[in-house]
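Feature request, filed as a ticket because there's no other form

It would be nice if the structure record came with a short human-readable summary line next to the tokens. Right now we just get the raw output. Example of a typical job, pasted below so the devs can see what we mean:
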Amino acid sequence: MPSCSSNWPVEPRLAGCTTPPWKLRQAARCIHQGGLIAYPTEAVYGLGCDPLDGEAVWQLLKIKGRPLDKGLILIAADFDQLRPFVLPLPAEALQPLFASWPGPHTWLLPAAENLPYWLSGGRTTVAVRVTAHPLAAALCRACNSPLVSTSANRAGQPPQRTALGVQRTFGGEVDCILHGNTGGLKRPTAIRHAVTGERIRE
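Raw output as currently delivered:
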């Protein structure tokens, strides 16, 4: 797997992605080749990979110690990237989602019929978010696809909020670490059910 960990300086602001384009292209290559990547999100560092690469997802779950039946969150740069992963919904059902995106709001949507088990955890829904984090969104654009997004931590341990924390926790188990600032949220993003409106996680 190609490694793209570096100490490239990132400005302490989130107005736009300060990661150079060549670094994003390198990270996208890593993902397309089945690698695992760590990157900043709205609250913590996330671990990600190609959501359709079963071997990569399995390796990600293994290093985290995360059960397969928990399912995973997908993040994207825009809703079009998520459409192949979900069933169509009426426009009125999508209005609350579009009003909250891009932003730190994760929604459960009806999963596409052919969605891999590892993304839904065997449920009829899949958790998705159009991220407002500039680096995470830029990475999704560079990959031209959504990414798996799960907190960078071992099961039962607190999530990491810095690239150094990720390196200390996972070392060579992660193929690529993108350096940047998290969005400053104190807690992971809220999760709501798009059809019922139920709040799954505050």
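Something like this underneath would help us a lot:
The helical segments are 21-32, 54-64, 79-82, 91-100, 117-120, 134-143, 163-170.
The first strand starts at residue 37 and ends at 40.
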